[in-house]
Structure formats: structure tokens, C-alpha cells
Amino acid sequence: MRLYAITDRSWLNGRPFVPEVERVLAAGATFLQLREKELDQASFLAEAKELKALAARYRVPFVVNDSVEIAVRIDADGVHVGQSDIKGRDLRSLLGPEKILGVSANTVETAVRAEESGADYIGVGAVFGTTTKKDAQNITVQQLLEIRRAVSIPIVAIGGINAANIGKLAGSGIDGVSVISAIFAAPDPAAAARELRALSEKLFGGKAG
């Protein structure tokens, strides 16, 4: 989970979406999430099928944002959901035991709840602010460490992470970083992914916490 890439075509300024995603995978992204808020369901479904096949060629896990139904329908590797999605729902039963379930969290309590709900990993943030979620609250390195000590499953940090600030997360105990704009808004997304992968390996290969 060193470099978890989340798609957002709005940053590409008209550049072809799927070819850019493939370049990012070839450059070293280790996990792929389809998150396209502006697509209608039919377009999202078609794109999910295409990216699933693409990720499989690079042997990278592929998850769908929010929609358990689409994840099951296309037999994706899994789904990533928010806290509201796990309340009152047994997503593990819907997905099956072999699929990946990722859950967002921003406190020890929500992280523990996610693990108890069957999550395989947790996305924690926002660590440096984010343009994706306007109401996100920043998480400190100390809070990341507290979450790390409270759960046993992998953790990826998300929120405003880029090559210039990723070093501030050293010693936080996380397993990797989740990135949107630092890759897809870059002039060369593949080069950005390559740099972030190298930095993530260096910083989190031997985690603290």
C-alpha cells in the first residue's frame, strides 16, 4: 500500500483518462481506486470495468469508491467506503470474505470501528488539508501514531500529500500514502507517481509505532 492512487479526471485538463492511469500504474502505483464523482452510474460502471482489467495487467489491487453494488457487479478487488456506509450494514457479507474492504477514518474511535466492521485497511486524513473534501479536518502525526497503535490493519494517510511534504509523515507508523492531485494534477503524472513511490518506500519501509 505504499502508493495508493485515487483517480480524478478533473485534474487532467482534457488529457485522456485511461492512458494516464496506465502510465501511473506503470510508474509504480501499488493500489488503485476509481473515484469519479461527476460520472453517471452507467459511465462509472463502464469505466470501472476498464480500470479493473487495466489494474489486473499490472497486478495492482483495484477498488471502487463507495459503491458496493458496482464493486460486486464487476467483481472488483474491493471497495472503499466512508464511516456512514458501515453503520448498520454488514459490508463484509455483501462483498464476501476474499474481497478488500477499505474504510475512511479520522479518529481512534472511527478507526477501531472500521476494523471491527471487517475493514482490511484504513484511509486516515486529511493530513495536510485537501481540495477534495472541503469539511475534512487535519490529522497530526501524533494522531496517526495513536491510530496505528489502536488497530492492527494497514493504514494509508490521505489529504494534500505531495513530494514536498511527504517527509513530515516519517515516523507516523503508516504503511503508505493515498494521493489524488499530487499525481493527476502534475504535468507528468507518471513522473510524479515514480517520485512518490520512491519516497514512500524510503519513508515507510521501516515504520515506527
Walkthrough of the structure:
This protein is an alpha/beta fold. The chain has helices at residues 17-26, 41-57, 68-74, 83-86, 91-95, 108-116, 141-150, 181-184, 189-204; strands at 3-6, 31-34, 62-65, 78-81, 100-105, 121-125, 155-158, 176-179. It has an eight-stranded parallel barrel, surrounded by four helices. Strand 5, helix 6 (108-116) and strand 6 (121-125) form a beta-alpha-beta unit. The two termini are 17 Å apart.
Gist of the model:
An eight-stranded parallel beta barrel has the order 1-2-3-4-5-6-7-8, surrounded by four helices. With 209 residues, the protein is of the alpha/beta class. It contains nine helices and eight strands.
Give me the secondary-structure topology.
Blueprint lengths: L2 E4 L10 H10 L4 E4 L6 H17 L4 E4 L2 H7 L3 E4 L1 H4 L4 H5 L4 E6 L2 H9 L4 E5 L15 H10 L4 E4 L17 E4 L1 H4 L4 H16 L5
Parallel strand pairs: 1-2, 1-8, 2-3, 3-4, 4-5, 5-6, 6-7, 7-8
Helix pairs in contact: 1-2, 1-9, 6-7
